[in-house]
Structure formats: structure tokens, C-alpha cells
Amino acid sequence: MAYNKLQTMRDNIEAIRLALRLDVEHRNAENALEREILRKYAGFGGLKCILQDANELADAAKWSKSDIELFAPTVELHRLIHDYSKDDREFAGYMDSLKASVLTAFYTPEPVIDALATSLRERGVKIKKFLEPSAGQGAFIDSFLKNENYPGAETLVFEKDLLTGKILSALHPSISTEIKGFERIDPDFEGYFDVAASNIPFGDFAVADPRYATSKEIAYRQSTKAIHNYFFLKALDSVHEGGIVAFITSQGVMNAVSPFVRIELMKRSDLVGAVRLPNNTFSDNAGTDTGSDLIILQKHTGKKGMSADEEFFIQSIVDRDTKAPTNKYFAAYPQNIICTEAKIGTDPYGKPAIIYKHEGGVYGIARDLRDALEDSLRLRLDLELYNNHGIKPPTPDPVTPTPAPKPKVAKVAETPLMTQYKEMKKRHPDAILIFRVGDFYEMIGEDAVKASEILKITLTRRRNGKAGSIELAGFPHHALDTYLPKLVRAGQRVAICEQLEDPKQKQKEEYKPTEIITPPPTIEPKPVPATVELPTPEVKPQPQEIESDGGLDFNDNPDPRLFAYNLFGELEPLQKPKRQPRQPKTDEDKPKPTAKIQISDEQVKKFRPLSEKELKFYGSLNWEDNPPINGFYETMMSIAHRQMAEMEAERQAAEATKKEIITENGTIIEKTEGDFIPQPRVAKAATPAPVERDMSPRKFSEDIQYFHQNGSMVVDNGQVGFLSEVRKNGATFTPLPIKPEQEKRAMLYITLSETYQQLYRYEAETHEASADLREHLNQYYDEFVDRYGNLNEKQNAKFILMDANGRDALALERGENGHFVKADIFDHPVAFAVDEVTSVDTPMEALSASLNKYGEVNLEYMGSLVDMEQDAMIDSLAGHIFYNPLVANYEIADRFIAGNVVQKAEEVKAWIDREEERIKDFPGFDGVEPFIALSKESLRALEEATPRRITFDELDFNFGERWIPTGIYSAYMSNLYGTEVKIVYAPSMDEYSVDAQHKNMKILEEYCVRGHYRTYDGMNLLKHALHNTVPEIKKCIGQDENGHDIKVPDAEAIQLANTKIDEIRNGFTEWLEAQSPEFKEQLVDMYNRKFNCFVRPHYDGSHQTFPDINMKLLGERCNVKSIYQSQKDCVWMLKQNGGGICDHEVGTGKTLIMCMAAHEMKRLGLAHKPMIIGLKANVADIAMTYQAAYPNARILFADAKSFEAKNRVNFFNQIKNNDYDCVIMSHDQFGKIPQSPEIQQEILQAELDTVEENLEVVKQQGKDVSRGMLKGLIKRKENLTAKLETLQYQMEQNKDNIVDFRQMGIDHIFVDESHQFKNLMFNTRHDRVAGLGNSEGSQRALNLLYAIRTIQERTGKDLGATFLSGTTISNSLTELYLLFKYLRPKELERQDIRCFDAWAAIFAKKTTDYEFNVTNSIVAKERFRYFIKVPELAAFYNEITDYKTAEDVGVDRPAKNEILHNIPPTPQQEEFIQKLMEFAKSGDATILGREALSETEEKAKMLIATDYARKMALDMRMISPTYEDDPNNKASHCAKMIAEYYHKYDAQRGTQFVFSDLGTYKPGEWNVYSEIKRKLIEDYGIPAHEIRFIQECKTERSRKAVIQAMNDGDVRVLFGSTSMLGTGVNAQKRAVAIHHLDTPWRPSDLTQRDGRAIRAGNEIAKLYADNKVDVIIYAVEKSLDSYKFNLLHCKATFIAQLKSGALGARTIDEGSMDEKNGMNFSEYMAILSGNTDLLDKAKLEKRIAALESERKSFNKGRGDSEFKLQTITHDIANNEAAIKRMKADWERYDKVVQRDKEGNPINNLTIDTCNLPDEKNMGIHLQGLAQRTDTHGLYQRIGEVYGFPISIISERVVSDGVEKVQNRFVVEGNYKYKYNNGQLAMADTHAACMNFVNALEKIPGIIAQYEERTAKLKADVPILEGIMAKTWGKEDELKQLKSELAALDRKIAAELAPKHDEKDGEEVKPDTQQQLASVKVVDPPGQATDDNKSMVAEPCIKYYRSSYLR
Q1: What residues contact residue 926 under an 8 Å CB cut-off, 6+ apart?
Q2: How far apart are alpha carbons 1576 and 1567 in whole angstroms?
Q3: Quick one: pLDDT at residue 956?
Q4: Does the predicted model carry a pTM greater than 0.90?
Q5: Which burial class, exposed, middle or buried, applies to 1708 when counting CB atoms under 10 A from its CB (0-12, 13-18, 19+)?
Q6: Cα separations (Å) of 673 from 289, 550, 749, 787?
Q7: CB 436 within 8 Å of CB 420
Q8: Which end of the chain is more exposed for a tag (fewer CB within 10 A), N or C?
């Protein structure tokens, strides 16, 4: 049965209605009928209509014809859900959930699921625990868990959709239903289920599973980015070992190009089978034809390799002929493709795909599926693995904890390993035994179960001979140090048993316990701290502890005896062997490789004592870094270590005897020093049993502090231990069994650590120093160091790091000159600034100090700092400070005369007027007079600084600017449409809403566009006009094979809509001009107040002295002789503003500005801890410059080692705990700093809110909401949601775990080369506009935003950072918005700018270029090409910016001498140019010798063509290696020019740079670099070693070496790309020329390239080249070279003029070419043809074609209006005739009607067939006629009333499936009149008889309706007549363009005549206003030149023409 949308919709509504009612009634579906209704629910996967608006009847106009029948049910659905929702929030949640399910809710047919379930059951799969992760309404549950199949099976199901979840719960009340995403499954269910089966969702939606997102396994992390991959991995984790996962999913899983996920699946499971289902599987059930696969996996984590089938499964393949992807598994097993027919088609995304069909429908599919599954399950399903390998509790049989084994175990044959395990377990029943087996440590039985839970390692099973199997867990031997502490913290005893002999050499493996971790419970630490005493011969060898001095001994222990590890990694022998009295203890730090040669205690006595030399030599051997080389050395090493240990024991014994011991009554008392009170200790002779201490885990008795976390080391009731399960109200304390001396050390450390945490937290929060806490911290630290050494010494660091807060404690020391010293926090606070300025030398410094301390001018404080009277001080600061009456205090000039000076001046003037009015009649001295005088001076200064007022005529208004009140827009549109229009703006959503109560013909006709699927009336187009967007109108060009419409853009309708939208937008300005002068003045006043009110002060920093700077060192190390005035001014600006933008050209000293500003901010307290970040290549130079300028400054410079994983956390703590003057690091290193989670959460939440708002906005824009658009929005929403949840999880897990940026105390960031961070995320609805960049942004830029927001949040102000770059705007003015988003968020908000679209609405104009290609179809290209209100935009930028060029600064650097070197095309290039032109016309890529374009490439055809043209211009061998070298190609020209410069400056060893981003150096491949080098060597004799490529430098050291060689003249020519050579290269000393083989895309790139030679320090150019550097641009004629170069010049000019404020115009045109789109067709063809006239012709033809198309659309619209007018005129005539005839009937009736006293008509009814005149009988007769008469559709007379005949007519209707006859009665006059639609009252005879009189009484009401309708129609007539009279307004323009085209055609024809060559060397003076630098054009000798063939972008640049260099 075909899919019926309407029936499915109704079934869904009924199911939802019932589910909601059941939910309210708190019951489940109780009968078969209710269950049947719920089971009919099929989801909304095939019902995209629910995405559209359906709130009111008017919304129906927006619906397509195919969906209109679903409009009413959709309205019903909305109302149903709304009625059952508690509030709007719940309703929105339901609707969002439903809409999201449209992409995924395609329910599987029941027969298909039955086939899967039956196949598994018949193969013996018994299900006890079933998981359904995406259940829908429960189809899989019904099929799998029928009562007769698996009674009592435990089931857990998940369903994310809220409504579907309610239906599922009602249908299956007995199972556990979770209405949430599968990602929220409880972790306890890992490895729990037998089978997981479902039809899972598919798509690259992110999943919010923080555990997976932060997993160490890359597969788990990546799976959270694609929901289908996630479901597979999560399900495999959820089933037990051997469990089955059977999922139906999209073909994308097996067809995907990347095999990564499939590889991971095969690592974790066995492939049971895969079946490809036909595309029509879901057709009947969900109305979609899509390919899907059934994949069945069996979990098998311990597998050793892959089968051939699994190898096939991993590989996806693409058919060479069809280009359709598939999987190699199906190529090998075609029988697993279920189909009866296969053909080539396309998938839902338009890509080639194989379409499978099955003519048998779902039952035929199910039948074939069972056959395919039967084979797969029979061959590959491992039932034994399924039944036996689930994780079970360890059985008591193989693992016996009691000393005596059970009798039955002895009867079963076991492996030798198990036998030895049991023997060892008898001896140590309460310890976890770890066996060394090869390279692994393994645990067995219940030990394995315990360890796997604690360590989170995999638990497996191993065969145990004939005894079955046993649990096993293990880890690599080198990971022992990682896992051992975890077992100790968990309170477990652990015994380590080393393997004595190689099991391969011996049939039976023998193990002996060598080490045991933690002593057994019976052996407790002595309660009395005591010194170490040597054991005496009388002491029996019983288990006891050996105390140590806390130090660690890393010597190896060769004896295979039982030892105990304590917490500090020291070995304690549990059972001492008998030995000599003086034999010392043996300490071990950690497990060492076991010696192959063992020396027993008896054997060691036989060896002679070794000499001192022998002891020194053999004692130096060890297993860590100096291992023995053979058995002899190993033996000698063991003997030496043993004898050295004995000697040390003797020494300690001698020292012990010297101690004074007093004996009283058997008690020994030692005299000690320190804070610890010595306690009595029982003498050895009478030692009592040790006191028992409670070592069991228990509740922590102390309060939980903010620094407590899992793993924190604490003291509880005198015991040291660790915390676990830390919560706000408590934690679990686990004691540590450690020795007394170690316990002392631990307690002292804990006290020290907690004191530090309390001190830092107190000072950070209160900004007050705590002397008491700091004193205690010093005392505890000093005592610890005296007793145990520095914190970072090896023996201490190891145990400190076992504390979760240990890294913080280790950062309390820092290394200096090889010693550990205290961190700054021991001396003074580091969380805030504490320096206090007490005196200064000048009033200006006093002013800076006042601003620092109070944030304002405090004259009293300033007077205390400088020895000067207050009046004198004020006089000396005249011009620097002004009195501001608004704050009753002085303000600095740079603050007072800055910002919005217009508003400030008005407020000051109002204050003056108010005060003068107040004292006007006051006779005496009020005291305010001096302040009034001061205020008037201040007012004059403000008025003088006020920007020139912008007049109305100068303004260029955009329709939709957010600052203009919506009332103005409403008034304009009401005037335009002729009816009241209301417009409202919602700032939070950046959304306009429009409404018109009464829509007229202007809205419905004149400003209306009719598309195939929907109509866009004037209100729709108005909304688009306000948002500056265009509707995407579709039309149908036929139907595909499935009967679906083929939709394509309707170019004519889109252009017509665009024309009408432009008419609305352009008419706004005309309407404004027609308004009254008062209105215009008010509007202009609003604009000036909001935008033209900013003043940038002139910052004069000449007074600064920079007291700490060392100019001598700067000169010696950095060659800086003096500080530029520009540098002083910039530093002063940064100090006053608290940051800003340093926009100084390359080579003007930004590095020193950065260093000086950072140090000055620190010195004056304006910043507490500044940070500088720069490029990796430059950051070392920045640090060197800072150190040279301020040699006494404390700088923390991050080298490469600082950010290695092991050092990174310590480095972060160093920043946090120390008061550095500056922290310097690279951009990459900065990106690794953890940002504040709270700031990240705040910013991401704001972005998520915007996305959710745009989700609604886009739908309302009039676009048909495509599946792709919806998916994109939902994907971004899901990604942001996942990021937020992952962030929340990390915040909870990592609380106080690592230092983030907020905790470091950084309060100002200097960002060098800030343009590297321009790719910041932003939201926009202009998704089709070119040149906007990636709105998603980069993580690098986002991290910087987080950091800056952290600082801004702390200060409550904008800025907080300084951006430094010579190219702040690298390509487009749109980058300005991102700069403002970083630095001025609050000021943007004041201007009502909250997003990019709001900014663009004010300052940018979007153009739509309609490109007509050769097939006459239109391609619309949109871009923000024009920028308006540029002076105000520049003022906003310049307010926080210091812009300086090299000329402004006065840098002594060479000038740029630009030369455009024209190269005629070679014959090969000429031929290829023709091919390129043909390709651009036809799109046939085979013309170029390559394969045809793919569908994706078709969309980027012009970009491909542009790229080919670039490569062709560089060298034909870039196109194909088959081309040959040509002596006239670009490489040859360049080589010749390089050689000329080389020889010309040979004596001075001049150097040259060669740039090209194409054809860069690659070893072993042909490239342009190597080709030019070959020519230089072979043709010009230049030595090879003097020519280098920057790409050869693989390390920073080699890079620096090449740069130094360039400066020394050893390397003369250096090749490189913009990215590698354009920045960070100071090799200018001898540079004389720069060669540009190609032209980059951005002006900033060209600037960076030229800056390599045109910078200070170029000595050769200054002395020998007239202080000029030649910059040669190589341009092949008829290529894009010249065009691109001059386009860049234009852009650079505009950007420079904007920055300098020197723009004469208020509008900028940026051009229309970029690297992502290439050129447009017409320009491309004209340039390649080499004739600019052809370009002009192409532009004219394009404009003419666009206008003719517009005229055609206009005439079509006028024709529609003419038809409408004719229809209305006809309707009016008909209505008037009808009214006339109805009035005649009324007059006739009114004359004869009889009425009673109340005026009611008296019935005058007669019936022809009824002889009884009474009303009752006539009524019965009439009712009988109504029931029995059948007139067969003809009117039959039955009587009359007042002379009007009465007739009856029979109609056939269908009711409840049965055809019936229905009769209607009418009264006939000029028209037939009915009452109650002609139906009689069957229950009331009186009413039945009155029916006809009542019908006649309705005549006046009908006449009134007709008159009202006619009046409305007549009102529309003038509007339609106006439309008819309207003429197309661009007819004259079209005629003019056609005339210009004809003239141009004549000119082109005339130009066919030969041209005369111009003389070489003719000099023309350049127009400096139109270009940045002089340009020369060089033509090769002997070649004719023609100016008309030199392609130059407008505005044209005049050139010098010269020959080659002489």
C-alpha cells in the first residue's frame, strides 16, 4: 500500500491525542482499541509539512500545493499539543522535539524486524536482557520480545522525542522506558545486555556524551561528532562480551570513504553479517526511498585479528563507470543485497548511487532477508561466545580464598599457572596477587575482578585446562607505577610475583612472591616515632617494618623474596632472611628488572670485600641508566650494592649509638629537637604488641574545603589518608598504612599545602594581604625543607604528586641558577597588585599614578606625590586635565575630550545654564562661580573637538538599519502600500516582524510574486527587504521516476522578487527626502548622536621618560638607537585607554611598543600581570627585546619544553604563583592554556541562543525549508549543545584540578600579528553572500575571545587587550566587525549592534550580480561590495587605534620602486588560453586534458578556471609535465632579471627575495623554484649554495642560519611563499630586489612580502641603490596577473584611506573577486582575450540582458494585473445586476407579506400535494417529502408562498460509506433563496413550514453582503488601473545601454586595424592620490606593446614604461 500522507497524519494525531490523555489520566493503554490507535503512530519522517507555520488561516498561503491538504491537520496538531501543554515552554519543547524528529523518524516495517528477530531466535539466541536505543513506538520490542519468545526478559529502551516517548510508555508499561537520548544511559549498564537492536538515527549531529568526548580513545572522541557512529560504539559498550548488536542504519556507514569507524568496530567486535536493504523498504511505512543496511556485530574485544569478511567490510569502493560508492563486502557477497532490480541514480544529496528496488514489497523483502540472515548467522555467529563469555561474578571453584582448597578442585586438571596461583593465594588470602608473565602483569580470578573495577581495565576470561575458564585482567609491565598507587588508594594489599624462569624453557612455570604492596593487617606502623635502629642477632626473623629516613633508594633488589611497597615507593621486606647482624635494610623505590643472576645470603659471605675502586665502578651500575653488559658485570653489581648497603648500615649504627638515651623502668626516652614532642617508647627487650589502628575506609570527619577533591591527601583523627567520593557535604576517608616518620612528613606537607590554598584563595577574593597566613606558610615550608629537603627533590616530589593538589604545592618553588627558591607568594600577594607609588618627579607621573590608584584625577593624592602647590600643579597640567562639572572633578583630556563628545557637551552646557540661573539673583559669593568658569573652558574644548555635523544630503540610508525607529519604517510602508502597516523589531533575535490588518491590491498584486509552490505577497517581500535577503523561489521542471517534483530555482521569479525588494528599499530614501525639514533634522540628529559623535584625542606621549629602560643594551643587542615619537604616542594611548589597536606598518617598531607598554602598565599598576603572545618565529626575539630593554625585569618566557605534557601544568602554576613583570609565549602555546569554563559557557550559551532564534527566523524568511538547511541549523545547535554539556561535565570533574586562564591573574594581553586571529565565529543569515569567511570560526580565535572576555568581565570595561599588526584589515572591511567584537562589545551594544547582520545593515550594501551564462540561465552572486558611512566607521575604528605608516613614523627605510614586468604569452600559453575560454563557456573539462567535472566541481567551475589561469601564467608545466620549457616563459624572464641584479650588486653582495605561492619547492618533484634555480646555475653561472629555498629549513635553527647567511651575503637569492617567508624574517640588510612571480589574494599578503626588504636596517639599498628597493611584479599578458595586482592596489588604497581618515567619499567599492569564488564569467573571458573593450562589452551585454529580463517580468506582472482588473470589472457588473434583481424580489415580497403585531411575517404557505391547510399537517407532509422524494437532480415545484414558487431538488451524498439521497428546498424568484442551506427542521413542524418565509426574509442581508463586496472590488479598481498605467522606469536606461553597446561594437571593429608602438622609456608623472606607489611597466625588448592590452582594474594606474635594467 502506497504511503498516504493524510492518513498517516491523522493516525499520528489520534495516537498523540490518546497518549496525552492517558498521561493526564495517569494510566496506560488498557484495551485492544487503544493499543491499536497507538501502534498506528508512524512518526513524522515523511511529513516535513509540520516545519511550516500553521498558526492561522493566512499561513496556508505559504504552503505548497502538494502539502495544502495537510494544512488543516497540522493546525489541529498544533492546537492539540498546545491544549495539553502546561505552559508555552512545554509546548515549545514538544514542537522542537517533533521538528527535530523529521530528519530521523523513519519507522521500520514490522515484517523486516520480524525477519531479524526470528532468524536470531532460530539460531539459538536467547535474550534475557534487551536494549533498544532508539525505540520509536516500539516496533523492535514487539518483534523481539513476544511472550512466547523470551518471557520475563529485562528490557531497557530509549526514545528522545517527547511525544513518541509517551506513546511508547503507554504501549509498553512493563518495560523500562527512558524518554531521553541514548547518550544518557547509566554507566552501570556497560557490559550488561545480551542484544541491542534498533533502527538508529544517522547524520553528522554531535552527541552530548562528555565521557566519550573527553575519552583518551580517539575513536570514542570522534564518535560524538556523528550520531550513527556513536550508537554503534555505545551499544557495543553496553552489551556483554559475546553480546549482539543488530542495527539498521544508512548506507553511509559502509559506503563512507573514511574507514576509521569501521576499523574501530572490527577491533571491538566480530562481523556476523551485513545486508543491504532495498530503497523501497521504508516507502510504505515512512514515505521515503532511501538506502539502508542491516549490520550485525558480536562483541569480541579480545580478538587477535580480522577475517577476510571483516577486511572487506572495512573497505569502501567506487565504481569506475557509475561513480557510485559501495562496500567491498557486498562486492564479495552480492547475495546479501536484497533486491529484484538495481539501477544507477542519485542519493538524497544528488550524488551518484545505486538504487535497489524489490518488487515483492516489504513481505518479499522480509522473506529474502531471512534467507540472507540464515547463511550469515550459521557461518559467523559464535553461540559459545554469546552464552559463556558474558561478565559473571567469579565462581568459588577456581579461586579459593580459604587456606584449604575444596576437594573437588583437586580432581580437575588445571594449568600449572593456576596451580601456583592457588598455592600463593593460600599464603596471602587477603592480598591481590600480580604475576609477571612476559611483558605483562596479570591478575586471576576474584583478584582480576577487583582490580578491573578499581583500575578500569578490561576483564576477560582464559581457559584453565579442563577446569573451564577463569577471569583474567592485566596491564603492561611498564605501567606498574601508574596502576600501583590506585590499588593502594583503594585500600588493597597487593603481592607482586616475578616469574623465575622462562616458561618456554620449562614445562611448569614457577613463581615466587617477590614484593607485596602494603603490609598485611596484622602488621601495623608503630605508634611511636623513633629513629632507625639496626636489628640485633637476638631479634627473630618475624614480619616487621623497616623505618627509613624518608629518602628513596633506587638500587635493585636481586632476591626473589617477599617485600612490601609503602606509599612512598620504598620496599619493606616482609620476612627477613637470616643474615649477619650488621646487614642493612634494603630500600626499593619501584619495581626494577629482576636480575637473572641471583646472589643468596649464604653466597654473599664467600665473596671477598671489594676495593674502593671496585665499589665505585661496579656500584655505579644500575638497571635504570647504566645497566650491566653481561652476567659477570651483573654479578659484580649485585655484590657491590650489597657490600655498600652493609657499609651504610654500619655508619648509621655508629651515629645511633652516639644519641643520648635515658632508661627509666624499662622505658627509653630520646632527646630530640623541633616542634614534635618526643614520646616514650618501650625498649626492645619488653616491646608490647603494637596498638591496633582502624585502617578501614570511613566518613571524613572534617568539613569539606573548596580545595578538596578525589585523591586529596588529608589528616583525619591523627591519621593520614586520601579522600574519595568527595561531595559538598562529605567524603570517604581511606587511611594510609605508613610508618611514623613518613606520617610526620605527610602531616607537615598537608599542613603546608592547605595553608597555601587558604592564603591564595583569601587574597584573590579580598585583594587584601594576610600576614598571619603568609607567616604560617613560611614557617611550615622552612620546617619541611630543614627536615626533608626541598619540595621538588626526588624523594619528596614522588609522594607529593600522589596528592591531587600536589602540583600546586610543587609550584611553591622555582628553579634559579640550579637551586630551588621560594615562589613570590611567600613574600607578597601575587593574586593582585600591591605596589604603592609614594613619590614621583613630575605632575604628569602624578597624574598617571592617580589614574592607577583611583581611576580619576585625585588632586590631593597627586599633591602628596609631587612637591608642588595644587594650583601650580593644575596650571602645569593645563590642556591635560579639564574640570568636568558632571562628576565634580577634573578629568584627563584624553578621557574628557574623547568618546561621545556631543552628548557630553550638551550635558555640561545644561549644568552651566542651571547653575547660572540658580545664582542669578544671589547677592553674594555662592562659591560655584570658579567652577562655572572652569566648566565654560571645558565646554569650549568639547565644542572645538565636536566632529563636523553630517547633513541629511550626505547620508546614505539603508532600509532596515536597526537604529532607525520602526515607526518610521511603518509610516513609509503604510504610505507605499496604502494601508496601515505595523513593523516591530526584536533586538534579542535581530528580527523584524510585519503585519497589515487589511491587505489590499498593492500587497496582494503590485508587490506580489507568484511561484510554482507558493505566493510571496507584499508582506513577505517587506520582511525580506528589512533583512536585506531574497526569497529562494522554486519551480517544478518535471517529475522523477518516483513521482516526486524536480525542484530548481525559479530565476525569473527570484529576479522579479529582487526587483520589487529593491523598489521597496530604494523608495525609502526617496520617501525620506520628501519629508518635512523638521523630520529630516530629527533623523539626522539621531544619527549624529549615535555615530558621528566620537573623538579620538591626539595622544602626545613625549613627556614619558620610561625610567626603567636600558637604551645602551637595546642599542647593543637590538640596534635600537632611540625611541620614535610614534612609539611614545602609542604607548601613551594604550596606557590611557587600557588597550587598543597598534596599527603600525611593518618595520616601525611594534615589538618595542609592546614591551614598553607592558612594562609601563606594570610599573604604574595599570596592569598587574601582562602577557605577550606572538608568532612562534618571533616570540624569542620579543623576549630578547624585552630583556634588553629591561634587564632587571622578571620575565617568564615559554620555550618549547615548557609546554611539553609533563611540564605544562607546572608552567601554568608558575604563572599563577609568581608576580612576573611579563609572561611571553607563542600563539600556539597560548592556545593550550585552559580557558575559564564559566566564560566559555557564557559565550557558547549566547551563540546557542542566537542559533535557536535564527532557527525560527530562517523559516519565516519565505524560503522553502529544505532538509539540508534544517539539518545544518540543527547540526550547529546540537554541536553547541554537546560542547556545553561536555564543558559542564569537565567543570564538574576537573574542579580545581588545573589552573585556567582566569586563575593565572593575567589582566592584559598583547597580541602580536593579531590578524592571525581574525577567523572569529559569528552568526549571520546571509548564508549565500561571498567573502564573509567561515562563520563557524576557528578554535584559536575562540580561545582568544574567551581570554579577552575573562579580562573584560573582571574590569567591567571594553578592551583589556592590545592588538598589534601592520595588517589589521587584511582583505575586507567586514573584518572590522570582528575586531569590534573582540575589543568593543559594550560600545557595539550601545549602537544597537548585537550581531553581524545588524552591523552590516548600517555600514554595508549588498549587491546581487545576476550572471547570465551561455545556457541563458541566471546565477546570482551576492556580496557586501559597497561600504557606506565610511567616515563614521573610520572614526569608530580610529578611536581605539593608533595608525602609522613608515612615512608617518619617519623610519629610515628604503622606498618601494614598483615595476610591472609585462611578458607576452608563449605559443603554448596562447593555445591553452583558447582552451580555457572554451572551458569557461561549455564547462567541458576534457578540453583541458583532465577528467570531466564532478557535480561538486560544476558549482565551482569559475574557481577552477581561475586556478588554471593562474597556473598557466606561472608555467605551463604546472598544468601538465608534458609541456616543455620555453625561453620566453615567466621562469626565464625572472631568472634573467635575478641575474642582472645579482651581477649589478655583486660587489656589495646584494640579496634578493623571490615570492610565489604556486609551484613551491617539493623535493623530488618539478617545481618553479627549482626550475629558476637551474636556470640561474646553468645559464648565468650563479653558485648553487647562494640560492636557497625557505622550505628547506625544517627547524628553527636552520631557518635562523639561512636568515643570518642572507644578512651576511653568503646566500644571495632566497625563494619562499607568503606564509613561510612573508613574516618573521629579518633578512633585509643587503636586499636590493623583490620578485613577485604571482600575486597573492589579499593586500596584506603583498604588504608582508614587500616588508622583508623594505624595512629599517637595509644598508645596501641605502648606500648603493638610492635608498630604493625594486619590486618586480611579473605579469603575463592575457592572464589574470595584472588584473589581480591592480585590484589589490585599489583595495590597499581604500583600506589605507579608511585607517588614515583621508577618504574623500563616504562609500567604498571593494570589487568582486576573491579566492573562494574566482572571477565572474564575462570578466574572465575578456581578460583572457586580452582586450579591455571586450570586458566593457561583456559588462554591457550582461546589464542589458538583466534589464530585458526585468522588463519581461514587469510586463508579465502588468499582464496579470490587467487580467485581474478585467475579472474585477466583470465581477462588479455581475454583482450590481444581482443586487438589482434581488431588490426587485424584495419589493415584490414586501408588498404582499402579512405581519403580526410584533412585525413577524405570517406564513402564507400552500402545498400542491397536501389538502390539509393546517400548519402541523403541512409540516408533516413537507418532512415526508424531504425523506422520500427523489427528483434525480431536477427542481420540482411543490407549492408557493406569497406568490413565490417553492421547489425541491435531490442530491446524492456519501455518508459513512453509504450513498444516500438528500433533499433541499428553495424559494424561487429572480434567484433561488434558501434557509438553513435548504434543509427542513425534521423535529419541529412549525419550523419546517416557516423555512420558506425565513428564506425570503434573508434577502436584505444578502443584498447588503453583495453591496459590501462590490464596494471592496471598486476600491481595488483605481489601484489596478494605476498599475496598468505604470510604465517600466528603466526603458531609457536600456536604450542608452544598447546605444553604448553599438558604439563599442564599432570601436572594437575599428581597433582591428594595426596599432602604432609607443616609445620605451616615456615617463609619466603618477597621480599620487590614486595609487600607493609609483609603478613601472617593463616590456621585453623587441616586443610590441599596447596600452589597451595591459589589463588594469579600475581605477587605472599610470605607469612608468622602461626597458630592461641596464
Answers
A1: 919
A2: 15
A3: 77
A4: no
A5: buried
A6: 87, 18, 19, 11
A7: no
A8: C
Question: What average pLDDT score do residues 48-64 get?
Answer: 68
210 neighbors 1288 (Cβ within 8 angstroms): yes
Question: Mapping DSSP to helix (H, G, I), strand (E, B) and coil, where does residue 984 land?
Answer: strand
Q: Residue 1587's beta-bridge partner residues?
A: 1613
Tell me the C-alpha distance between 383 and 123, whole Å. Answer: 8
- pLDDT at residue 683, rounded to an integer: 38
Residue 1140 C-alpha from the chain's centroid? 27
8 Å CB contact between 1860 and 1843: no
Under 8 Å between Cβ of 50 and 77: yes
Residue 768 to residues 736, 759, 779, 781, 1086: CA-CA distances in angstroms? 37, 10, 21, 22, 47
Order of all β-strands in the sheet with 681-682 = 661-664, 667-670, 681-682
C-alpha grid cell, residue 813: 618553588
pLDDT at 1138 over 50: yes
Nearby residues of 871 by Cβ (< 8 Å), 6 or more positions away: none
CA angle 1326, 1331, 1333 (to 5 degrees): 80
- Write the burial class of residue 655 (CB in 10 Å: 0-12 exposed, 13-18 middle, 19+ buried): exposed
Residue 862's H or E segment, with its range, is helix 859-865
First to last CA, the chain: 88
Q: What is the DSSP letter of 1992?
A: -
**pLDDT score of 1549:** 92
- Residue 396 identity: P
Grid coordinates of 1359: 578592551
Inter-residue contact 1576 to 1554 (CB < 8 Å): no
The conformation of residue 528, written as its DSSP 8-state character, comes to: S
The whole-angstrom separation of Cα 1903 and Cα 623 is: 113
Exposure string of 335-352, with b = 16+ CB inside 10 Å and e = fewer, is: ebbbbeeeeebebeeeeb
| Phi–psi pair at 906, nearest 5 degrees | -65, -40
Cα–Cα distance for residue pair 962/1398, rounded to 1 Å: 6
What mean pLDDT is predicted for residues 460-477?
69
Mapped onto helix, strand or coil, the DSSP state of residue 956 is: coil
| Strand, helix or coil for residue 255 | helix
Mean pLDDT of the 1055-1076 span: 85
For residues 450 and 373, is the Cβ–Cβ distance under 8 A? no
Higher local confidence (pLDDT), 1643 or 439: 1643
Q: Read off the C-alpha cell for 1237.
A: 569554563
DSSP 1459-1513: EEEEEPPPHHHHHHHHHHHHHHHH--GGGGTSPPPPHHHHHTHHHHHHHHHHHHH
Residue 34: count of CB within 10 angstroms of its CB: 19
DSSP codes joined into one string, 1299-1341: --HHHHT--EEEEETGGGG-------S-TTEET---TT--HHH
1002-1037 pLDDT, tens per residue? 888 888 888 888 888 898 899 888 888 888 888 888
Lowest mean pLDDT among 55-69, 744-758, 1099-1113, 1663-1677: 55-69
Q: How far apart, in Å, are the Cα atoms of 203 and each of 140, 229, 1922?
A: 21, 9, 53
Whole-angstrom distance, CA of residue 970 vs CA of residue 1315: 42
Handedness of CA 1727, 1729, 1730, 1731 (dihedral sign): negative
E strands of 675-803, at which residues?
681-682, 698-699, 713-716, 719-727, 730-735
Residue 104 has pLDDT above 60, yes or no: no
Contact status, residue 516 vs residue 428, Cβ threshold 8 Å: yes
Contact 543/591 with Cβ under 8 angstroms?
no
Copy the grid coordinates of residue 218: 580517539
The cell numbers describing 996, all together, are: 497589515
